[in-house]
Write a structure and sequence with these properties.
Structural class: mainly alpha
Helix content: 40-55%
Largest sheet: none
Order of helices and strands: HHHHHHHHH
Shape: elongated
Number of helices: 9
Distance between the termini: 117 Å
Strand content: under 5%
Length: 213
């Protein structure tokens, strides 16, 4: 009688001699780069420089200031790689940002664009609260000596203008950027006050605005 267990042992021996190999399964979920919600200190420190003294940045610029520009654009909602190199994508997003803010669309980050970008890092004034001291202090300047504001202006005086328009009853975002919304409301205010309707805030319009207080 043949021993039936011999072939079984032989088969088992072959199995042991040639173990099954399994390909490891590579992980498909790779952690994405963590995006900092807070502006890094080394970039925040650059904002100690006034916008008008910042470097003018354009396509081809490679400096740490470009990182501040890119970081701000990215957090504004325009997807931008923060690599310190002002390339085509950064220029495209700068142009879009300028268009959004009613600024000259040239793809160059100069004084007005910097002023707008700095504003993204400041909490807008609460138009429902009390006029902030820094805005009230601006009214120590006589209307005839105030800056003439028009679409494209980006300065703290624009915040005073916007605050006043908002309190007057013309809903206006208080962000320090004289864009299309502010221009529209200035024209409405001038119409209401019987002033020349040109969207420019000069002496007569400033005088009327001061009168709201």
């Amino acid at each position: 009688m043949k021993k039936k267990w011999i072939p079984t042992l032989l088969a088992f021996g072959l199995l042991v001699a040639s173990p099954l190999t399994f390909q490891p399964v590579e992980a498909t979920n790779h952690p994405s780069a963590v995006t900092e919600d807070k502006l890094p200190a080394r970039l925040a420190n650059l904002m100690d420089i006034a916008p008008e003294h910042q470097f003018i940045l354009r396509n081809g610029s490679e400096r740490i200031e470009v990182e501040l520009l890119q970081w701000t654009l990215d957090h504004y909602g325009l997807e931008t790689a923060v690599d310190g190199i002002f390339g085509p994508q950064t220029e495209k997003n700068v142009r879009q940002y300028q268009a959004d803010k009613g600024l000259r669309v040239d793809g160059v980050a100069g004084t007005n664009t910097w002023a707008a970008l700095y504003g993204e890092h400041d909490k807008p004034a609460d138009p429902e609260g009390e006029l902030p001291a820094e805005l009230r202090n601006l009214m120590d300047i006589a209307p005839e000596h105030q800056f003439i504001l028009r679409q494209g202006s980006a300065r703290i005086e624009v915040e005073l203008l916007q605050w006043t328009l908002n309190e007057y009853g013309l809903p206006t975002t208080v962000d320090g950027i004289f864009g299309p919304e502010t221009n529209k409301n200035v024209r409405q205010y001038q119409t209401d006050k019987g002033l020349k309707v040109d969207g420019i805030v000069g002496t007569n319009t400033w005088t009327a605005l001061y009168g709201e207080y």
